[in-house]
Design goal:
It holds the Pfam family ChapFlgA. Residues 197-259 form the SAF domain. This is Flagellar basal body P-ring biosynthesis protein FlgA. The protein is an alpha+beta fold and 330 residues long. Helix content is 17%, strand content 36%.
């Protein structure tokens, strides 16, 4: 009575072992194939090896489908992966149904600065844009993006350009060769091109009379249409000049805001020099204006009480006579 259970147990063990052995032939191949979570490809085609790890070399090299465009991605879902695995007899099948592989295509992105330069070059050649130093480009919607295969040296070119100088709006058609036997990639963009000019401004507040140095100046871009003919646009017109009124940071300066640094201050006594032929006379007088080197100043002669005009010399004297105007008033 006690020997039958022993035989039954042996039969069950033998059956179980047989099942395990039967599975040995399949399990190793399935265990070696692993689905990739993502794949970064550079070629124009995606291979099975880009989707699964652990494939034999010849199977891994099989082309599965065309790669996305350079710079773009695509997602392969579980059903698509299962179909490809079945057709290629790959020992893999989805277990949850939500498996997927994200495939990204590497590429060479044309820098935004290069695209802007193309548009700017077209603007400079367009009628009605003038001789503006630069343009501020505001694209309608997303700025244009150009990405080509990593095997291609991108050389974008503007093949069609329209600009309305009244509204400052433009549209451009840009082409770039893609290689791989494909037609050129075409990107169309539009937007507004505002002509801007770099204008010198003060970095920080300076008091009236301060002499402006190179380190006191910054440059900001100002829309050209907002400038007037009195606005200083050349930093060299400010350097070495004195402020005639307090200056504030970031605020463009007018020509009238600066002048030659003050050598003579109004109300101070100055020496006047009169030259007549070889004769040189000097006299004291009161400056009736503040003035810088080379500027004309009024001086009240302390002795005659006449007002004369003279030119301020670097040492603060006033040349009256042959070296400058000498209009006298009683």
């Amino acid at each position: 009575m006690t020997r039958h259970p022993i035989r039954l147990t042996r039969h069950l063990r033998a059956a179980t072992l047989g099942l395990l052995l039967a599975g040995v032939a399949v399990v190793p191949a399935m265990a070696g194939v692993v689905l990739r979570a993502s794949s970064d490809v550079g070629a124009a085609q995606v291979t099975l090896g880009d989707l699964f790890n652990g494939l034999p070399a010849d199977t891994a090299a099989l082309i599965a489908f065309p790669a996305p465009a350079p710079g773009e991605t695509m997602t392969i879902n579980a059903r698509q992966l299962d179909g490809m695995a079945r057709r290629a007899e790959i020992a893999w099948q989805p277990s949850t149904g939500v498996e997927e592989v994200v495939v990204s295509r590497r590429g060479v992105r044309v820098p935004r600065e290069q695209i802007d330069a193309l548009i700017t070059d077209a603007l400079e050649r367009a009628p009605g844009t003038g001789n503006s130093a630069s343009f501020r480009l505001d694209y309608t919607g997303r700025a244009p993006e150009i990405v080509v295969a990593e095997t291609v040296m991108p050389r974008p070119r503007v093949v069609d350009f329209i600009h309305d100088s009244r509204t400052e709006r433009f549209s451009a058609r840009i082409e770039v060769d893609q290689g791989e036997g494909l037609a050129p990639l075409v990107v169309v963009c539009a937007g507004r091109a505002t002509a801007v000019v770099d204008v010198p401004v003060l970095r920080e507040r300076l008091a009236s009379g301060s002499v402006i140095g190179p380190n006191d100046i910054d440059l900001i871009s100002v829309e050209r249409r907002r400038l007037n003919n009195q606005q200083v646009t050349d930093p060299n017109q400010l350097i070495g000049q004195a402020l005639r009124r307090p200056g504030y940071p970031g605020r463009p300066l007018m020509a009238r805001d600066v002048g030659t640094p003050e050598v003579i201050r109004k109300g101070t006594m100055v020496t006047m020099i009169f030259r007549r032929g070889g004769l040189v006379l000097t006299a004291q007088g009161e400056a009736l204006d503040s003035a810088g080197e080379g500027e004309t100043v009024r001086v009240l002669n302390a002795r005659s009480r006449n007002t004369v005009y003279g030119v301020v010399a670097p040492d603060g004297t006033v040349e009256v006579g042959d070296a400058g105007p000498s209009i006298a008033r009683n």
